[in-house]
Design goal:
The protein is an alpha/beta fold. It has eleven helices and 13 strands. It binds nicotinamide-adenine-dinucleotide and UDP-4-deoxy-4-formamido-beta-L-arabinopyranose.
C-alpha cells in the first residue's frame, strides 16, 4: 500500500483529503503543528474511516525535525503539502509570519524529500482579476493583492525552478478556486478562527445566530446582480482531485515534472446567488444587507477546468445545493458538539 505524507492533514482541506486517500486505498501519515486545527479532528476522521491515521505533531519550519522525520519515514511515496498560513487579512498585518511559515515549510520539505512526488496547494488568487474568463492555467499571473497571495505565487516559482534541476522531483500544483462545504457525515468541516472573513462560514454562523447579518461586499460590480462572482467548489470534490493528482504522479504519465491544474467547477456564482442557494437548500432565512466593496476584492473569477477533466481525469460531482446543505449540517454539528 502506497504511503502519502499529508502536511496540514488535520486542517480543513487536508482532513477531507485524508478520508479520500483512505477510500482510494492509500496509507496516510499526517504532519501538522495544530496551529490552525484541532487534535480532535483525528477522532472525527476515525469515526468516518474506522481507524486513526498515523499522526506527528511538529512545525515544518523546524529544519532539523523535518530532516530526522524524512530519515525515519523511508516508505513515503508522495507528499501533499497543505500546511500553510492562509488568512489574507492577517497576512497584510503580519507579512513576515506568512513568508516565514509558507516558505520555510516548503523549502524544508523539498530539501529533505528531493526524490518525491509532490502535490502543492496553490490558489486561483495567483490570477488576480484575469483578462478573460473562464481563466485557463496559461493565463498571466498578476501582481498579488496580499502577502498570502504572494506566498502562493513565489512558492509556485520555487517549485518550477527546483523541479527544473531535480529530475526525481515530480510536482503538481493545484490552483483551488473557492473551497466550501463539509463532509456528508457532518463529522468534518471548516473550523474558522474568530470572525470568518470567507463568505460561506459567515453565512452558516449568521444563520445559527453566532453572527449578525451578512454584509454583501458591493452590489455595483459589472455582474448580473451587481455582486461579485466566484467559482465555489465542494471540499470533497477538491479532496478527490488530490487523489487524482497523486495517482497521476505515481503513473509516470505526467508530460513534465511540473504541472499545474485549475480546481473549480467552471461555473461562477454571485454572492447573492450563494445567499439564495443557502436559503433554498436549507430552508433557513438569512438576514443580509448591502455594504461597500471589500478592499482587495476582484470583480469576478471562475476557472476553465478542461485541463483537469482531460488530463487529470477529474471533475466535480457536487453542486451548490450540496455545498450549502453540508456546510449547514456541519455548523449545526459543531454547535451541538463544540470543539
Ligand atoms: P487550514 O488552516 O485548515 O489547514 C492548514 C493546516 O496546516 C492546519 O491544520 C495548520 O495547523 C497546519 N500548519 C500550518 N502551518 C504549519 C507548519 N508550519 N507546520 C505544520 N503544520 C502547519 O487550511 P485549508 O483551508 O485546509 O488550506 C490548505 C491549503 O490550501 C493551504 O496551503 C491554503 O493556503 C490552500 N488554499 C486554501 C484555500 C481555502 O479557501 N481554504 C484556497 C486556496 C488555497
Ligand atoms: C467570496 C465573495 C466577497 C464575506 C479568499 C482568498 C483566496 C482564497 C479563498 C486561499 C467575495 C464576498 C465575503 C462576506 C461578502 N484563499 N463576501 N460578505 O475573497 O474569493 O477568496 O478565500 O487561497 O485567496 O482571497 O473568498 O469567501 O472571502 O469571498 O460579500 O461576509 O464573497 O467580497 O466577493 P475570496 P471569500
Amino acid at each position: 500500500m502506497s504511503k502519502i505524507l499529508v502536511t496540514g492533514g488535520t486542517g480543513y482541506i487536508g482532513s477531507h483529503t485524508v478520508v479520500e486517500l483512505h477510500n482510494a486505498g492509500f496509507k496516510v501519515v499526517i504532519v501538522d503543528d495544530l496551529s490552525n486545527s484541532d487534535i480532535k479532528i483525528l477522532d472525527q476522521i476515525e469515526k468516518i474511516i474506522g481507524s486513526k491515521p498515523e499522526f506527528h505533531q511538529f512545525d515544518l519550519c523546524d529544519e532539523a525535525k523535518v530532516k530526522s522525520f524524512a530519515a525515519e519515514q523511508t516508505d513515503i511515496s508522495g507528499i501533499i503539502h497543505f500546511a500553510a498560513s492562509k488568512a489574507v487579512g492577517e497576512s497584510v498585518q503580519n507579512p513576515l509570519k506568512y513568508y516565514r511559515n509558507n516558505f520555510f515549510s516548503l523549502i524544508n520539505l523539498l530539501n529533505s524529500f528531493n526524490k518525491t512526488n509532490f502535490v502543492f496547494s496553490s490558489s486561483c488568487t495567483v490570477y488576480g482579476q484575469p483578462d478573460s474568463l473562464p481563466v485557463t492555467e496559461s493565463a498571466a499571473v498578476k501582481r498579488a493583492e496580499s502577502p498570502y497571495g504572494n506566498t502562493k505565487q513565489i512558492a509556485e516559482e520555487i517549485l518550477v525552478e527546483t523541479a527544473a534541476v531535480t529530475p526525481d522531483l515530480n510536482v503538481i500544483a493545484l490552483r483551488y478556486f473557492n473551497p466550501v462545504g463539509a463532509h456528508k457525515t457532518a463529522l468534518l468541516g471548516e473550523l474558522p478562527n474568530g470572525v470568518p472573513a470567507n463568505l460561506v462560514p459567515f453565512i452558516t454562523q449568521s444563520a445559527i445566530g453566532k453572527r449578525g447579518p451578512i454584509v454583501v461586499h458591493g452590489n455595483d460590480y459589472n455582474t448580473p446582480d451587481g455582486s461579485a462572482i466566484r467559482d465555489y467548489i465542494h471540499v470533497v470534490d477538491l479532496a478527490k482531485a488530490h487523489v487524482a493528482a497523486v495517482k497521476r504522479l505515481a503513473s509516470g504519465e505526467a508530460e513534465s515534472n511540473y504541472e499545474v491544474f485549475n480546481l473549480g467547477t467552471g461555473k461562477g456564482s454571485t454572492v447573492l446567488e450563494i445567499i439564495n442557494a443557502f436559503e433554498s437548500s436549507t430552508g433557513e432565512k438569512l438576514n443580509y444587507q448591502i455594504g461597500p466593496r471589500r478592499e482587495g476584492d476582484i470583480e469576478q473569477i471562475y476557472g476553465d477546468v478542461t485541463k483537469s477533466k482531460e488530463v487529470l481525469k477529474w471533475q466535480t460531482e457536487l453542486d451548490l445545493n450540496e455545498m450549502m446543505r453540508s456546510a449547514w449540517e456541519w455548523e449545526k454539528y459543531i454547535k451541538a458538539n463544540p470543539f
